[in-house]
Amino acid sequence: MSQPKLTFLAAATPAAQQSLAALTARYGSVSIEKADVIVSLGGDGFMLHSLHGVMKWNKPVFGLNLGTQGFLCNEYDEKELIERIVLAEPVVLHPLAMGATTIHGDTKEAYAFNEVSLLRQTRQSAKLRVTIDGIERLSSLNGDGVMLATPAGSTAYNLSVHGPIIPMGASLLALTPIAAFRPRRWRGALIPSRSRIQIDVLESEKRPVSAAADFTEVRDVRSVRVHEERSVGITLLFDPKRNLAEKMIQEQFVE
């Protein structure tokens, strides 16, 4: 790629808006339809929103971190942006596809680049049955809920509830309980990314549960089906010395 045309997406924060003005003045900006690369200005949350918003254009995204963690972004620097983008290493993310059916019979579909999570809606614990590729693996999981995380999402919410970090390219998903009460000794599982998972909510009216695919939430679900959607993908660009694979390895050695 030589002299790529850029378009900028910026969070609503003052820092991101100031950066948008400075970078646009320095590098110019074209419409998203004419751009070769989309530059996201914000933190991981804004990057996640950006990924969902630009999927249909199938164009690479280079994130500049103006948030807290910036795991999906690169270090912020206004200098040599074009050179960095030309030398950047690509990583293709495939989202999870969620189909959530409510107790009223409605079905909502959504994608998740980080995780699909099921969470109790009230003071009562969720009671869930987990089936993988047609085989019942857990007849009853009691607790706050459960999540299915991608490798890219394994360092986010999944890590905070003591789920494993999955290296990029491992072709695995993390199935992680959230404050499990029963079975007490179950700490989750690593399953092949080609798996098809169904989670049924037992006693769904007495113990209501919501499902969320990244930031798309469905309330009062009865069952949720999840699989990795390989036909959909989006490319993230990273500086070579701090690419996503390296970040995920480093995260496992944080003191």
Q: What does this 3D model show about the protein?
A:
The structure is a single chain. Strands 5, 6, 7, 8, 9, 10, 11, 12, 13, 14 and 15 form an eleven-stranded antiparallel sheet that branches. The chain has a five-stranded mixed sheet with strand order 1-2-3-16-4, sandwiched between helices. With 255 residues, it is an alpha+beta fold. It has helices at 14-27, 44-54, 81-87, 157-160, 244-251, and strands at 6-10, 37-42, 61-65, 89-93, 96-102, 107-112, 115-120, 126-132, 135-149, 172-182, 189-192, 196-201, 209-213, 216-218, 221-228, 234-238. The chain folds into two domains: 6-94 and 233-251, Rossmann fold (3-Layer(aba) Sandwich); 96-228, Tumour Suppressor Smad4 (Sandwich), CATH 2.60.200. Helices cover 17% and strands 41% of the residues. The model has no long low-confidence stretch (mean pLDDT 94). The chain contains five helices and 16 strands. Helix 1 links the parallel strand 1 (6-10) and strand 2.
